[in-house]
C-alpha cells in the first residue's frame, strides 16, 4: 500500500497543518508530526475549535461531532491522517 501520490498528499497536508500551527500558536514554533498538541497545553479548547475550522476551510472537509476525538488531535501527524481520511 505504498502509494507515492498518497504519501506526497499526506506530506503536503502535514506541511500545511504545521505551517498553520506555527503561525497561529507561537509555543508550537518547532512543531513536527510527533509534537504533542493536547499534552503540551499550547492549544486551548478555543484554539482547537479554530484549528478544526481551519482544517474544514483549508481542505474542504465536513466535520461531524465524532471528529472531535482526542485520537484525531494528539499530534500534527494524527491531524494529517485525519484530514487524509476525510478527503
Features of the shown structure:
87 residues, mainly alpha, disordered N terminus
Please, could you describe this protein's structure?
- With 87 residues, the chain is mainly α.
- It is 59% helix and 0% strand.
- It has four helices and no strands.
- Helix 1 packs across helix 4.
- The radius of gyration is 12 Å and the shape is globular.
- It starts with a helix and ends with a helix.
- Mean pLDDT is 88; it is low at 1-5.
Secondary structure elements and pairings:
Layout: H1 4-24, H2 45-59, H3 70-73, H4 76-86
Helix pairs in contact: 1-4
Cα radius of gyration in angstroms: 12 Å
* Morphology call: globular
Oligomer: single chain
- Outline the biggest β-sheet: none
Task: Estimate the helix proportion, in percent.
Answer: 55-70%
Cα(first) to Cα(last) distance is 18 Å
The assigned structural class equals mainly alpha
Please give the number of β-strands: 0
Catalogue the unreliable spans: 1-5
Question: Beta-strand level of the residues, as a percent range?
Answer: under 5%
Order of helix and strand elements from N to C terminus: HHHH
Mean pLDDT: 88
In DSSP terms, counting alpha (H) and pi (I) runs of 4 or more, how many helices?
Answer: 4
Amino acid at each position: 500500500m505504498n502509494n507515492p501520490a498518497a504519501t506526497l498528499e499526506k506530506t503536503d497536508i502535514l506541511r500545511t497543518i504545521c505551517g498553520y500551527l506555527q503561525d497561529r500558536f507561537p509555543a508550537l514554533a518547532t512543531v513536527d508530526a510527533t509534537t504533542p498538541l493536547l499534552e503540551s497545553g499550547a492549544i486551548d479548547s478555543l484554539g482547537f475549535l479554530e484549528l478544526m475550522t481551519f482544517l474544514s476551510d483549508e481542505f474542504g472537509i465536513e466535520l461531524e461531532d465524532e471528529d472531535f476525538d482526542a485520537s484525531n488531535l494528539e499530534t500534527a501527524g494524527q491531524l494529517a491522517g485525519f484530514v487524509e481520511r476525510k478527503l
